[in-house]
Amino acid sequence: MAAEAHLGWLLGRGATFGHIKQLHAHLLTTGLFRRSPPLRTAFLELCALSPFGDITHALAAFRSTPHPATTTNDWNAVLRGIAAGPDPSGALALFARMFSLSPPRPDALTLSFALRATSRSSALPAVFQLHALTLRFGLVADNRLVTTLLDAYAKCSAPEAALQVFDEMPLRDVATWNALLAGLALGPHPHTALALFHRMVSSSLPDRETPNEITVVAAASACAQLGSPRDATAIHDFARRRGLDADVRVRNALVDAYAKCGALDRALDVFRSTGSKTLVSWNAALLALAMHGRGALALRLFETEMLRSTVAPDAVTYLAVLCGCVHAGLVEDGLRIFYSMRGVRPMAKHYGAVVDLLGRAGRLSEARDLVDAMPMAPDAVLWQTLLGAARTHGDVALAEQAARKLAEMGSKGCGDYVLLSNVYAAKARWGDVGRIRDTMQGNDVRKVPGFSYTEVDGAVHRFLNGDTEHEQWRKIYRTLEEVEARIRALGHVPETAHVLHDIEEEDKERALYQHSEKLAMAFGIAATPARAPIQVIKNLRICGDCHAAAKLISRAYGRVITVRDRARFHRFEGGECSCGDYW
DNA sequence: GCAACTCTTC
Predict the structure, then answer these.
(1) Is residue A565 part of a domain?
(2) Quick one: which of A524, A550, A518, A547 has its CA closest to A460?
(3) Are A536 and A521 in contact (CB under 8 A)?
(4) CB–CB of A165/A150 below 8 Å?
(5) Which of A29, A95, A290, A481 holds its CA 20 to 30 A away from the CA of A71?
(6) pTM of the model
(7) Taking every annotated instance into account, which residue ranges of this chain make up the domain DYW (predicted)?
(8) How many domains, in total, are found in chain A?
(9) Adjacency order of strands within the sheet including A459-464
(10) Which nucleotide, over all strands, has the C1' atom closest to the CA of A381?
């Protein structure tokens, strides 16, 4: 049959959207679109799912299918297309229409596609509804469907619900474990994810539940978030023992995990020994170098190796190289890379990196010009970058302009106000400082709580600013007082301009001394042997005063202190930081 | 006949 042959050709060879429209016209004029359900479904799948198809066209074609449908096939084809497409949120309305029209009644596949769509658009209430339907339709014995459900809960930040589904499943397989593990790994509980991994590893599970490559990838990503080098090594050893370390995705995940745990050398070892490197391999290695402030190495890897390999750079690659330049202060190199981008259209993030690069170097008017020249509207992050640069270099007008833009965009971030206030405080414009404080009080400004943690003997100790939750808090504060005295003796002067609140100078100093990263460092000093290295992980950027203090602490106590903040690593040793104070 | 879990950015 001509249409079948044509369809086969399209599926086998690939084609353009024009071919699809021709095929559609052919099916309509011959009447096959109505007469041949299999051909029609195959056409809808092609149109909804293939890279050269178009979901809008698929939906239009779907609207002319005969009603009521005798099978779920056509519904499933378009739902699947929407779920996999750029805007999965529309799937729910389609599902609701199917549900109200029934027949056909949604089946396991319908629910599966709908769940995929809802998890991709983070619609938790819809996941609950689809869960209820799974129960009502008696489909709980379908393992793949229930794994999809579990995955949807996990991806919609409902780990308790995911865990409950997991516990109630009579029969699990490795994908079930992986879905739970991956879900926990991307949330705020990487520690729970690693505990689950250890449970998998230490219990003798049946064959269908044996950890596989995906398990290792998920565990490594949890480890990357947590930042514990001991766990990274344990996961790597496990992968080697089970022969899972030949997989390039496992190696990429290990590169990322080692780097984020502070073990740059081991990350690079894994990268170097990876045989057929993929784009992700290169990107992970470049990001690792950028994160560790090794911008010159990142540049060399990119220009003399990656560009000569068979792998073409993408947007992430350029972002990684640019970030490397930002963290190392390589202004000219960064500009050169930015203006030589090929095959990738610069996105807001690339502009952001270059604005950051120029701004930190004090080239504020060039940064401003670049913002004006951007083809897209500057986002909030970009204005925050400019505001930060204006603060560093004391440019009141630019700071005010950036702050105004942020206010127009409805910024509720505490940091934005603090930065502007810092600019005024540095110029002794106390009236303006007070005005900002009033605005903050009137505007329901949200403060992202800063926290830090450090690991001692495999146990994680977490601190908030001014925290007294830790069982040894009295001892920690006593150590902190001693630390304070010793670094003052070395000339430390608290930078109280970083504190916004209208409190007495002495209280400001106390507020600074109780920053979570200082508590974590003090705990490290109190809880580990003399001269042992200390590693601290912070969820926000390290503050200027803590940075200055950490340098002196490393000297006063003869310790190597590593701080991983939101953006990069700082390695303090002998009174200096690896970032060279350029961050 | 159509389905599940995975790596690089925040």
Answers:
(1) yes
(2) A524
(3) yes
(4) yes
(5) A29
(6) 0.91
(7) 491-583
(8) 2
(9) A459-464, A451-456, A534-538, A561-564, A569-573, A576-577
(10) B10
